[in-house]
């Protein structure tokens, strides 16, 4: 069996209108972090997995954590695809970021 390291991207929209919604959001986000997900942007988190079947474990975990009014999308991308991601920013919020296995962020 050949292993190809992948990233699981978790993108979500959760309501924040009531106190209960806000509580559900905090619980969902804390569970993402405790399961090894890292924030890429607001409401977009990722986690490195050795292969797609290993990512299915986290898919199962997230399915049971989704708030009733929430919407969550998972996307599996190869390490190569993730490293080729382009960051486009305007001049006001200029940031330089290195995507991939090197975890260097210059702000």
Q: Could you provide a short overview of the structure?
A:
This protein is of the alpha+beta class.
CATH topology: Alpha-Beta Plaits
> Under the CATH scheme, which architecture would be assigned?
2-Layer Sandwich
Structural class: alpha+beta
CATH class: Alpha Beta
| Count of discrete alpha- or pi-helical segments spanning 4 or more residues | 3
H-E string: EHEEHEHEE
Indicate the radius of gyration in whole angstroms. 15 Å
What is the mean pLDDT? 86
Distance between the termini: 40 Å
Q: What overall geometry do the principal axes of the alpha carbons give?
A: flat
Give the percentage of residues in beta strands: 25-35%
Protein architecture, described:
With 107 residues, the chain is of the alpha+beta class. The protein has one domain: Alpha-Beta Plaits (2-Layer Sandwich). Helix content is 33%, strand content 28%. It contains three helices and six strands. The strands form two sheets. The chain has a four-stranded antiparallel beta sheet with strand order 2-3-1-4. A hairpin with a 2-residue loop joins strand 2 and strand 3. The longest helix is centred in the N-terminal third of the chain and has 16 residues. It comes from Enterococcus diestrammenae.
Which features characterize this protein?
107 residues, alpha+beta, Alpha-Beta Plaits, 4-stranded antiparallel beta sheet, two-stranded antiparallel ribbon, 3 helices, 6 strands, 33% helix, flat
What's the SSE blueprint?
Blueprint: E1 6-13, H1 19-34, E2 38-41, E3 44-49, H2 52-65, E4 71-78, H3 79-83, E5 96-97, E6 105-106
Antiparallel strand pairs: 1-3, 1-4, 2-3, 5-6
InterPro entries: CRISPR_associated_Cas2, Virulence_VapD/CRISPR_Cas2
Protein name: CRISPR-associated endoribonuclease Cas2
Subunit structure: Homodimer, forms a heterotetramer with a Cas1 homodimer.
């Amino acid at each position: 069996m050949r292993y190809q390291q992948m990233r699981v991207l978790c993108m979500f929209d959760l309501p924040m209108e009531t106190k209960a919604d806000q509580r559900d959001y905090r619980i969902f986000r804390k569970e993402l972090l405790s399961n090894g997900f890292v924030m890429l942007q607001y409401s977009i988190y990722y986690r490195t997995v050795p292969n797609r079947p290993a990512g299915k474990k986290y898919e199962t975990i997230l399915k049971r954590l989704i708030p009733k009014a929430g919407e969550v999308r998972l996307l599996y991308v190869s390490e190569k695809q993730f490293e080729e991601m382009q960051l486009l920013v305007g001049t006001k919020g200029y940031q330089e970021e290195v995507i991939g296995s090197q975890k260097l962020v210059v702000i």
